[in-house]
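Possible regression after last week's pipeline update?

I re-ran a chain I had predicted before the update to compare outputs. Posting the input and the new output here so someone can diff against the archived version. Not blocking, just want to make sure nothing changed silently.
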Amino acid sequence: MPSIEGRHDGRRIVTDVAVLAAENPADLSHVIGRALIDTGATSSGVGPTIVTQLGLRSYGKRPLGSATDERMMPYYFFRLGFLGYRDANGMIETHAFPYVIGECDGFGWPMARHFDVIIGMDVLGKCRFTVDRNFWSIEF
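New output (post-update):
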């Protein structure tokens, strides 16, 4: 089963991911973004740098709630992919093409942050996500 893993600092989990446009499933061209894995987020999202680099067009706005308020945010279709996985021998393999997990219907945010992508429960719910004292892993 393909997987990725990494270390975390005890406060947050970040990793690099591939972000792809959703229009053509055969098109594996992508941009690399820094992703925050957020179990408190219902859906995934992309920041302004990714939106610009991929030329994503919002299909409309919907309300997005947070711990402090609710705002109308633009929504986009995009795909997420992971760049490495653990093979049958336990070695991490990295390929030129990402392991694409499918299309996301996610929100966008207007201002740059310390990350480009939020990976929410819409993605994590399709995987086995494990966190322990120092490490995290996602199995597909």
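Follow-up from reviewer: compared with the archived run. The mean pLDDT is 88. Marking as no regression found.
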